[in-house]
Amino acid sequence: MDAFEALRSGFAAALTLTNLLWALAGVTLGTAVGVLPGIGPALTVAVLLPVTFTLDPISAFIMFGGIYYGAMYGGSTTSILLNTPGETGSIATAIDGHVMALKGRGAAALTTAAIGSFVAGTLATLALTLFAPPLADMALRFGPAEYFALTVLAFTTVAVLLGDSVVRGLFSLFLGLALGLVGIDQLTGEARFSFGIPQLLDGIDVVILVIGLFAVGETMFQAWSRRSPEGEGGRVTLHQFTGMSRDDWRRSWKPWLRGTAIGFPLGVLPVGGTVIPTFLSYMTEKRLSDHPEEFGQGAIEAVAGPEAANNAAAAGVLAPLLTLGLPSSATAAIMLAAFQQYGLQPGPLLFASRPDLVWTLIASLYIGNVMLLVLNLPLVGVWARVMLVPRPLLFGGILVLASLGAYSLNRSMLDLVLLFAVGAIGCAMRLYGFPLVPAVLGLILGPLSEQQFRRAMAISEGDASVFLERPISAVLLATAIVVLGGPRIWRRWTGTTLQ
Amino acid sequence: MPPASAQERLEGLRIIAPAAPGGGWDQTARVMQQVLQEAGLASGVSVENIPGAAGTIGLARFIGAERGNGDAVMVSGLIMLGAIVTNRSPVTLDDVVPIARLTGEYEVLAVPAGSPFRTLADFLEAFKARPESISWGGGSAGGSDQILAGLIAQAVRVAPSRVNYIAFSGGGESLSAILGGQVSVGVNGLAELAPHISGGTLRALAISSGGRLAGLDIPTLREQGVDVEFENWRSVVAPPGISDEDRRRLAETIDAMVHSEPWRRALEQYRWIDRYLAGDDYARFADAEEARVQAILRELGTGRGERSFADAGPYPLFVLAGLVVFGIASVLSFRRHGGPDGGVLIAPARWGAVARPTGRVWQPIAVLAVGILIHLTLAERAGFIVAAAALFWFTARAFDARHPLRDAVFAVAVSAGAWLLFARVLQLPLP
User: Fold this and answer.
1) What is the CATH number of the domain that holds B278?
2) Does residue B142 surpass a pLDDT of 90?
3) Which of A280, A415, B18, B27 is the most buried (most CB within 10 A)?
């Protein structure tokens, strides 16, 4: 067992006092930036790069690894408590997590998120240890046709997010798709719907839409409805400080494992990110659940699954980075730059040339995961009390953080104006019963899907049969059809056999 | 070259990186910051990122906001020339003061190890026979990779508009498409492809340098009969309207920087090639490059959506039609099931059943709107602490008007705390 021998020496190097301190600094900082809307691990590592120039590369990477994992943990906290996802990977968590918090079950939601993240992070790091090279090679077999099929599969998740009214859900989706049209068309360089405003050339940032719809929209909505009975007497009472009940455990462990199984391989893919795996996990849990009607009303599975998926995906991202030098997310791209700062080139040669660095980094990921669990579990009770902060102060704080986060993204006033405009739209949508999540999915998946479709068509010189001729693409498209039509057919079939 | 000791130290130099953290321009800016301070050439050097539209947003801001400022420089380069053409930028590099070209990177044409193309000649034969059947994978549309593809086509007498160029966003995406054999040939920077070439997973067909590079067994385009020499260069420019004195000072500082020991070390560390060229020589070079890039991009047809297979087609129309159809359908559904006019507000059950608010419903929203407007007006004028405190106070007002003083105290405390966190701890510049 070559890998285990190497990993053992990696642990020996990572378990020194200095390196443990760097890991601790990393996970703490990571949790903090995960909590703050708009600031992600990518920006944090980039800002720290010049500071770490004089550090030993091993220590620096241990810290970066900690920041990266920590941000995935922190992102869930604000999603659950404040309905303000700190990262795109925790949008799915907010759907049911926040309802749980409103019902006073915030501690249970935070606990299942923390333990799920730990389980997924550890299992995925194990998978990274054992299967990184073959998985990364698999990822290379994904071309534009396969990515297009994957986005089609991801679009089917919208079906479970539509809410009460199908047409309003679809309107929300198309709103997201339309916003995704804004900006430079990646394939031709042509500007679309930017109305001559240069700041719109890069399109509308997903983070602006998420913070705007959720954080700002929520604040406006609450201000509007504060005199309603629910708004006035809706003070949350925390009845379960103990966190998860026996029943919660029973309902959580399978979603943790399924979330890991979905998140890790999708994280390996260079266009994955954490959005697609989290929503696929949400959909899987709803489809497999015995009580799908609870989804959207605070089902604990809907927090456990996506939280596991985003941490597993985060680990998956490291597989192509370390073995091929392929950055498949913004953070990975910065990590790549960090390697280059030290004159190192991740890729096929790194395992051979600097095994000490690679294995110490991987070992420190295991350690960071344990640290995060130890750090976060005792805090769950403290965090859950955020719900008890007087509402004027709570929402004032949310708006200040939202506006700082949005501005620091591109240092653009236009983003700030957009943030509040989107907030107003979000508030109106909520008042009129439009679900918000399909809009976010539309903005993220729309451009991805369109680009990959056109790339595939360009490579095949306009022949659409590629999508069916390539096996992975055909399987993914078939899965999408089954997911959409399957439950109906299944119900009809079981319905007739029962009678 | 003047010795560093005779150099006046520049105080508070600001380096603008017209890109998000992590990219080539950002790295160049941050290395300059490091080197200038380490070599004692400047003190209090800061880096500001102004990302967007391949640098043209940063350029516009630089020309507008920094006019006449002798203590600001911006990192620029070939990619910005391309973006100015494709984005039809109203400002160009003619509007800034050239200081020097710093580094350059050569481009490589590569195929996966299993590709049928053994040499550049094999590849060009197939390309000339049926240009559209060859897919070229590389970075963003109008960027250095596509420019090189166009130049090669032109050199072998194929109309550049027939190049089937597949633009990928970001280095990772194009690299994985090249490694996975999703495209016929990959065009990318040497630094990105080098480890895969030496690792044997990719085969380099040609490099765009003038002569062979030491320690690299890659034949040049020119020695294989394609008369193209090309590099993705990076440079540093100063804002328009600065005094001759300021210009001289900046030029001397940069000159001392590129001759310093820390700069040498950095070049080695990042595997950048030293392409230092200063003063009028650089200005002439930049002008020639501008003409070349403009001509080839016009022929490639980027920025105008004139590509046959990669055409957007009816997709935007489909999306807008969907938006209109479901918008109308939603309004109709209110009619049927009762919307806000029907007296019952329908909110998804998960937000709690919200009955129609009674009483002065518009008042809290109005207070909140005033807070937001004040926040937006003040943000860049009075600084973020004041603007954020105002936003906090008005928001608190909208929820509960009973404790104006307590809210004011919290407003100032939270805003100052948040500002300290963002601006000081995380080093993000805020007004």
Assistant:
1) 3.40.190.150
2) no
3) B18
